[in-house]
Amino acid sequence: MASMNTFKVLFFTTVTLFFVAASAAECESKYEGGCHDKTMALKYKLIAIASILVTSMIGVCLPIFSRSVPALHPDRDMFVLVKAFASGVILATGYMHVMPDSFEDLTSDCLPDQPWKKFPFTTFIAMLSAVFTLMTDSFSIAYFKKKLNITSSKSGGESKELEHFGHGSVLENVKGDAKEVSAEQLLRYRVVAQVLELGIVVHSVVIGLSMGASQNPCTIRPLIAALCFHQLFEGMGLGGCILQAEYGTKMKAIMIFFFSVTTPFGIALGIGLSNVYSDTSKTALIVEGVLNAVSAGLLNYMALVDLLAADFMGSKLQSRMKLQCWAYVAVLLGAGGMSVMAIWA
């Protein structure tokens, strides 16, 4: 899989953001106001790094270690409800947190009216991002599916490629065509997990950098609690996808690591660049706004198509109306809870 190349591209983009955004402020920061204390702000930022790191690790690891709890196995009803709740969180993150941040950046008074206030760049970029995510999703699955079929035909149906995709009990005791279908579904889960993590990581870096550059403890203090809850539930959604993808220990550790450290990493770099970085410089606003719009489109597509639609249109929920109703309740609770948190975020 091309996950490592994806992360290299992501961090190249992040580093570019750090350097191009280091320019002088042109108007009052959205994080500044009457409460301005550099020493106190640094104290809160250090607390934020530790608390968000721990919360992120707990959130993403909970589903992965749920195999030791029979009720939370991927084939049980409780797992379906937890995943539906987490999918609602991811959906609200895209619509209620990331997209409004992009609107705020790209329609800022610090930017000229032409063209930034004459054209809805946020929704346009989010739309293109969703289409590009669909293309990535489709091409990735088609490529690996073709590779899977070629390998299967060369080995008479019992391919080592299938064994490579199968870990644990997902493909055990499965023969013939059913085994190939299971391998294709597993491949689908892996593509979903990697693309979803990419969208989450992009937003995490941007919001971490913004917090790290702020000198306003009155803003940082409530943000710590909001981001901890945000990372906890978003991590549960990603962790559920990683669990279904049946990765080996090394790949699980890599994905857990990147999800857990990106927001603290962004905060730490924001602290280091706080003397030269301005969240109201034109370049910073444009770059952050564009990245947030890209992340919003990606997260909205993944939540609606690859997570919610895939589950609700699947045979398990379609054949059990009562479970489907409870799953919708879980989605609304997750989306509603994350939407309410937008007040403090």
- The total of helices stands at 12
Amount of beta strand: under 5%
- Mean pLDDT, rounded to whole units? 78
Low-confidence stretches: 1-5, 15-26, 158-181
User: How many strands in all?
Assistant: 0
Tell me which oligomeric state these chains represent.
single chain
Give the overall silhouette: globular
- End-to-end span in angstroms? 35 Å
Largest sheet: none
SS content category? mainly alpha
Question: Which secondary structure elements does this structure contain, and how are they paired or packed?
Answer:
Layout: H1 3-20, H2 38-64, H3 77-106, H4 113-116, H5 121-154, H6 160-165, H7 176-213, H8 217-245, H9 249-272, H10 282-312, H11 315-318, H12 321-341
Helix pairs in contact: 1-7, 2-8, 2-9, 3-5, 3-8, 3-10, 3-12, 5-7, 5-10, 7-8, 7-9, 7-10, 8-9
Q: If you had to describe this structure to a student in words, what would you say it looks like?
A:
Keywords: Ion transport, Membrane, Signal, Transmembrane, Transmembrane helix, Transport. InterPro entries: ZIP, Zn/Fe_permease_fun/pln. It comes from Lupinus angustifolius (Narrow-leaved blue lupine). The protein has 345 residues and is an all-alpha fold. The chain contains twelve helices and no strands. The chain starts with a helix and ends with a helix.
